[in-house]
Amino acid sequence: MANFLIVFAIPIHGRYNARNSYLGNSLFMTRILHIDMDAFFASIEQKKRPELAGKPLVIGGKGDPTKRGVVSTASYEARKFGIHSAMSLRTAYKLCPDAVFLPVDYEDYLTVSKRIKKILKEFTLTIEDAGIDEAFLDISEIMNASEEIANKIKKRIKEETRLTCSIGIAPNKLVAKIASDMNKPDGLTIIAEEDIERSIWPLPARKLRGVGPKNSAYLKEMGIRTIGELASISLNRLIERFGKSYGRYLYDASRGIDESPIITHWEPKSLGREITFQKDIDNRQILGKILAEITRQVVKNITQRGYKARTVTVKVRLSDFETHTRAKSLYEHTDSLEEIKRATFDCLNRLELKKKVRLIGIRVSKLEK
Ligand code: TTP
Ligand code: MG
Fold this sequence. Notes:
about 375 residues, alpha+beta, 13 strands, globular, binds magnesium ion
């Protein structure tokens, strides 16, 4: 069973990128550094077990490719076989039966992640935590050359964790993230303001944040494959095709324009947990027991963080992947396990379970400190 803590959050403190100054000296320009660890989960395991170094390694689920589960990540050696994140473990096994499969040891990866974030804070406190293995740093005010800062960060991380990372530095978050991905693993890519278009235009449009498989397919229908081709489309046409907000976004993004702030702190909007079963369940009593347990975990989590919640939502995914939710709002904010559990069961009882259940989850929202 996969049991994930899921947190949706909203930014509460941001620092807006100052427009680049006209001083012409790169030290005075907004410089955003994006760092992303290389094959993060897999590299950690390879350091723990040196016999796995240089071997195809797949991390996912319980580490058993005959069971349900998806690939969290694969070592670069395993990627050569076509294995990638989010692929089913079974498919990964078919592509490379000789690969070593290991379970996800999330706690351990989180510990390493925290050590890395701590190192990053030695450089600046204007940091956005962008995920378990990535972050954005505003290095504009550090009086060293970009390359020097990046190499120092790489060295410190290697000393403490023996891991490598890839770094991109650019005038904004959008381009910095594209840059960090350009020379993986152990890469360093610096893109100056005047080089943005030349550097990003040859890349596929889906390298832009916010262009997923669906929109990239729409763009292909319009004959657009690269970021440069996207930049050749008029703003009007993009708005006509994609709506005002996303059309405008694509127009700016294809020119490497991005003024999104570094968000240094996030408050959770909701907190939840869900469980995907190894085998689908149709016994309501067992479902009730599991729901009670994950409700207890969620309530423990909100009380530890000092929150109370007003809305409880229960989600079930049936064996045919049909997903249903039921929500209940309480009279007032609460962190009482009894009250939240009652609301949870009220939601469960309102769900019609015509098929076996594949996943069950609970989420509490409208949080208040
Ligand atoms: P990524 O940075 O996307 O991947 P990576 O670090 O493994 O490889 P790369 O060198 O290309 O950056 O994600 C970081 C970790 O997050 C990854 O090691 C495992 C986890 N992860 C998942 O669990 N599921 C996913 O679908 C993805 C993309 C990542
Ligand atoms: Mg990574």
